[in-house]
Amino acid sequence: MNCQHCDKENEGGWFYCRSCGKRAHPPKFTTNSWMRSEIASQTKMEFSVNSMDDSIKSMEGDAVSSKLRSMGIKPL
User: Fold this and answer.
1) DSSP states of 3-71 as a string?
2) How far is CA 38 from CA 10, 23, 35, in A?
């Protein structure tokens, strides 16, 4: 491929042109190329507030707590 600025051949596939020093090829992706669909532009985040007690109760059955119990350590 040739350089996009000076049109000289870029034999080694260098990122910057060896003759003019500028970027040899245009970027393949733009900063907004990930926003292609309507559903991708929507953010569906849910925020909730839990008390410390509710949070501890919800974590009682997780894998870490089970492992701690099997080691003889009482989880929080």
Assistant:
1) -TTT--B-TT--SB-TTT-SBSS--SS-TTTT--STGGG----------HHHHHHHHTTSHHHHHHHHT
2) 39, 33, 8
Cα separations in angstroms, 72 against 65, 66, 69, 75: 11, 10, 5, 9
Digits of tens for pLDDT over the chain (76 positions)?
A: 899 999 999 888 899 999 999 999 888 776 665 555 666 556 666 677 888 888 777 777 677 777 888 888 887 6
C-alpha span between 24 and 59 (Å, rounded): 54
pTM of the model: 0.38
